[in-house]
Amino acid sequence: MNIDTLQATARAMVAPGKGILAMDESSPTCNKRFEALGIPATIEMRREYRTMLVSSPGLGEYIGGAILFDETLRDQTTDGKSFVDVLNAQDIVPGIKVDTGAKDLALHPGEKVTEGLDGLGPRLAEYHELGARFAKWRAVYAISDALPSQACFSANAHGLARYAALCQAHDIVPIVEPEVLIDGSHSIERSFQVTQHAQQTVFEALADQGVDLRGIVLKPSMVISGAEANNRAGVDEVARETLRCLLSTVPPAVPGIAFLSGGQSDEEATMHLNAMHHAGVALPWAVTFSYGRALQAAAMTTWAGQSGNVDSARAIAFHRARMNGVAALGEYSPELEKAA
Ligand code: 5MM
User: Can you say whether the dihedral through the CA atoms of 215, 5, 324, 101 is positive or negative?
Assistant: First the structure.
């Protein structure tokens, strides 16, 4: 493990005014999104769509890293360049999703544990050869009155920590992603409690496995009311509670925190990030985004599988990247959103 290399990569991914583009939908997830829009679920369409996403001139000004699915890391754009080369040419670090998905947790109905440790070492060695310099592993926690169970917290923390240690051993920065799901009618207080415990358990497991915190990026969910809750907390409260939680769990050695959007609307996700930079709190880490849906949804809808829509879809994707890059500096405003 070369900690200087890991640290330099992590810093580049979350450099000031930059965040991460999560475009690592597995084929089933990508196909599901395409089918909902009437787009043929083929490898050719996935290639055309992903080519559109990575080929905006100037994208590297706001995006420091892009998370790819295995298919894309090995693939070429529609004009025959490797995706890895296209990203590197824009100073965007190529990354790879390496978990094999959240599977049912035995004896715990309604809960999941993320799998993918078997054979991960050799896979990481190959991914490094192919040009990936960071990886991602996502664990999910569902909230109900009774869940998550301690079994869910500890199994997922163990998986994340074993994965992170393997990544660092291969000079690949691990994105550690514990996602507390927004689904449900829970309060923001309950979200705080679950998110704090999930993060505490993860950092204990990372310490147990000897992971060097200077060479990771944390990708958490925000502390937020459930999607179906009454009187959902407003933007400033989400920002304040999210930071209160992170300050209680994440050591300052971690170079960056890059949030997932987790089902928030595009603009909501941008406003929450922006508000964190106005909460009057000194932040010991870079605080930015690693959005999937909140960067892509509008662009995918506009593209709709038609090559004639590529330019407008690309402009929309670029706009969202720019709005979030600006929000990562606390410089976003509704006027800026509308002006574009
Ligand atoms: C982009 O979607 C990622 C992969 O999903 P599947 O494994 O289900 O195909 C996902 O892990 C994503 O990176 C994170 O959930 C963050 O995305 P959002 O849309 O929540 O910002």
Answer: negative
